[in-house]
Model the fold of this input.
Amino acid sequence: MIQQREKVVVTTAIALWLCCSSIALAQRQESSSNASPNPLEITTPDPLLPRLNQPLSPQERQSLAAALDQLNVQAQAQLAAGNSIGAFEIWNRELRLRRALGALAEVQALGRVGAIAWSENETTQVQIITRRLQAIQQQAQSQPTVDLTLLRSLGYAYRQVRSPQQAIEVYNQILALERQAQNTVAADNTLRTIAELHLSWFDYSQAAKSYEELRNLANTRGDAFGGSRSDHRVSEVTYLQQLAYIYDRARQYQQAITVKQRLADLYLNEAQFTQVPALRLAIASDYQALGQIQQAFENYQEAYASAWSLQQYARAGDALRRLIVLYRSQGQVAEALQTSQILLEADNKAANFYGLMNTYDQIGQIHLQNGDENAALTAFEQGLAIAQQLQYQQPYFTQQIQQIQQQLAQ
Done:
């Protein structure tokens, strides 16, 4: 009896499992059959292009292009009205039909719509467009003759859909072709585009490599062509500025120093003296980051001296402040106090009253560390006078003064 019941239970369980499995399989098949097709691969005849896979006459091409431009206008209107689904349905129809006008027209439209999709956070649409661009790229590269215009359009379209790796791949191919054709101007422009792409996507090592190459090219041509030497110097300065930014961001201090030193030399040679103090300040900071203290001291001092001679008193003040911090970190208290007195003068000349107040505070703190309460008291009182004028930090200076007075009274 018990065995019969067990058989019934097992048989029922198997039947239920088979039933559930059949239902699940049917649901998966139904789901698969109902999956949305790629909207760019729909082959249903369209009223705007009833004759598929047949060449168009010039008049038909013109009429179709005008009709597709109108679809673009309609899609933009739908998007502006808040109907993004309807807008991209229209755009997808436009993109399907653009194929009839050739690869170049299609790529340009794909890039335009892709940029909109990216800005609207339409991730699926961006992926669909990117896949279509890749298909066109593969087809173009399989041809015996490469269409440079199409490749350039593909590179730009990849940038529009934020696909940097694909864009760089295309631009590298373009660069090779332009150099093969000895088209120097076009090759330089393409290399600049590659450098900008690397930089915009924070690939600092590759960006630096591209800008170093551009800089070397500018140097070589500047030496070879005397008549255009100044233009190449301007280009070199531009590339050096970009390299300085890249090496700063990448914290590659030694490379940054080399680039900034070259920039400083160029500015001095071109008598652009006003540019030098900021560079000296940056070089000093790089040396400090590397732990090369003596070189940091020398460059901070040069930054201060050059800024002062140019009456850039705010810049001179920046250099002096960093010098003071460095002196204190090395235990050179006397030098820190001496430099603080020069900083007071720089702050006065720059009308930097907040800086002046902070400098008096710093002098007071140094005197306190030295155990010279009277000198500290004088510095804090001078700081308080400025704080009262600014109506800022009066309680702080008052507290410092009261604490010292209490210590002196004991």
